[in-house]
Amino acid sequence: MRQLEFLDRYSPYALAVLRIVTALIFMEHGTQKLFGFPAPPEQGMPPLLSLFGIGAVMEFLGGLLILIGLFTRPVAFLLAGEMAVAYWMVHAPQNFYPALNGGDAAILYCFVFLLFVFTGPGAWSVDGTRRSPGPALT
């Protein structure tokens, strides 16, 4: 596997691309519930102080923070929890199988956000510019 070690230097950039794309798609769920964009949800716009309304705020603002890479780890932790709750409260009671209950995206979001909790934001992040220079850890 030595011949693939050159890819290691690109890991922070691949992680950043995953973070940015995940955040953009995740924010779309929030904008749909908050602003009816790109289309209003089938069940209608949720009241802001309902469980779905609070989730929409988390999806939009949390997605925005993940997008720019600000407070990535704590925000990702909260969003992973939101997605776990969404899966078990909304999707799992409908059917056991994620492909049949529509919860496969919630599961993926949960684990991608958990990945960011442990890895941080990768390259191109506000968090990266806020770090004080210190000794490199290897």
Residue stretches low in confidence (pLDDT < 50, at least 5 long) are none
Based on CA atoms alone, the radius of gyration comes out at 17 Å
For the secondary structure, the number of strands is 0
Fraction of residues in helices? 55-70%
Termini separation comes to 20 Å
Give the overall pLDDT as a whole number: 93
InterPro entries: DoxX, DoxX-like_oxidoreductase
Protein name: DoxX family protein
Main location: membrane
Membrane topology: Multi-pass membrane protein
Description:
With 138 residues, this protein is an all-alpha fold. The radius of gyration is 17 Å and the shape is globular. The chain is built from 6 helices and no strands. It has one domain (13-124). The model has no long low-confidence stretch (mean pLDDT 93). α2 (51-68) packs antiparallel against α3 and α3 packs antiparallel against α5. This is DoxX family protein. Belongs to the DoxX family. It comes from Sinorhizobium saheli.
Keyphrases for this structure?
single chain; 138 residues; mainly alpha; 6 helices; 64% helix; globular
